Amino acid sequence: MKTLHILILAAVAALSFIKAPPALAQDAARALSSESVIETIKKRGALKVGLSTFVPWAMRDTNGELIGFEVDVATRLAEDMGVAVEFVPTAWDGIIPALLSGKFDVIIGGMTITPARNLTVNFTDPYAGSSLGVMASIKAAAGLAWPEGYDTPAVTFACRRGSTPCEYIRARFPNATLRQFDDQSQVIQEVMNGNAHAMISSQPEPAFLIYDNPETVFSPTDEPIQPSAEGFALRKGDPDALNFFDNWIRVNTANGFLAERHAYWFGGRPWADRVAQ
């Protein structure tokens, strides 16, 4: 009998041990959930969004307010979360460090998903797609054959520091001179003034600029360059936030909101008279 009693106690202890891990897992899941940036946003009552001004993703209107595709996306996201939205304009080359340091909750800024960036931040499913385009100075680049005529130290490219176009230029035109600027308006002005031969940036900006300034700039090629996908970027280690943002993108892809807003901002310029000069 004594032996039987010992065996029963051992069996009960084993069953208790088997049942313990799920309870511990639930506790761990609750702890992770409570640490998610989603809970921080809900408690704060505001979604903080990092972005960088770039036509037509985000730009200032004649009243100094931010408008653009990203602004519409972030505003709708905040509305669906039942919170306010706060935009934190940030220089592009410092936007990922600013996210990691907690200055805002998420980057919604036309950021191309790349393996290198993905080592540092998590990306959502794509919510938009684009490609790069070229704008060249008639004064400086007329007569140069694309692309081989641009891969020489005598040719200067301009780009926004830390951007995908800078990476593309380094890889595709390793012999060219590369000048980097913190602000996209400086990049544009360098080409407009003929101080740089060309710039590469996300469409439709080059196409819009060429349409407005046909006597000053042109496109040496009409071929789409390096088609890409853009995602929200967020800090690693937050599965709840990644799940929420992914599903928000899926819902707003299915209901047509993202496509409608993208067509408005990228398909033409009905908004042009709203933008500050």
Number of DSSP strand runs: 13
Quickly count the helices. Answer: 11
CATH architecture of the largest domain: 3-Layer(aba) Sandwich
Structurally, the number of domains stands at 2
Radius of gyration: 25 Å
Low-confidence stretches: 6-20, 23-30
Q: State the assembly state of the protein chains.
A: single chain
Instruction: State the end-to-end distance.
Output: 93 Å
CATH topology of the largest domain: D-Maltodextrin-Binding Protein, domain 2
The general outline is: globular
Helix content: 40-55%
InterPro entries: Iontro_rcpt_C (IPR001320), SBP_3_CS (IPR018313), Solute-binding_3/MltF_N (IPR001638)
Family: Belongs to the bacterial solute-binding protein 3 family.
Organism: Rhodovulum euryhalinum
Signal peptide: 1-25
Briefly say what this structure is.
By secondary structure, the protein is α/β, with parallel strands linked by helices. 43% of the residues lie in helices and 20% in strands. Strand 8, helix 7 and strand 9 form a beta-alpha-beta unit.
Explain the overall architecture.
It comes from Rhodovulum euryhalinum. By secondary structure, the protein is an alpha/beta fold. The chain folds into two domains: 39-127 and 231-274, Periplasmic binding protein-like II (D-Maltodextrin-Binding Protein, domain 2, 3-Layer(aba) Sandwich), CATH 3.40.190.10; 131-227, Periplasmic binding protein-like II (D-Maltodextrin-Binding Protein, domain 2). It has helices spanning 2-34, 37-44, 69-81, 95-100, 115-118, 138-141, 164-172, 184-192, 205-212, 239-254, 257-266, and strands at 46-51, 59-60, 66-67, 84-89, 106-107, 122-123, 128-137, 156-160, 177-181, 198-202, 217-218, 225-230, 233-234. Strands 7, 8, 9, 10, 11 and 12 form a six-stranded mixed beta sheet that branches. It has a three-stranded parallel beta sheet with strand order 4-1-5. A two-stranded antiparallel ribbon has the order 2-3. The protein is globular and about 60 Å long. The N and C termini lie far apart (93 Å).
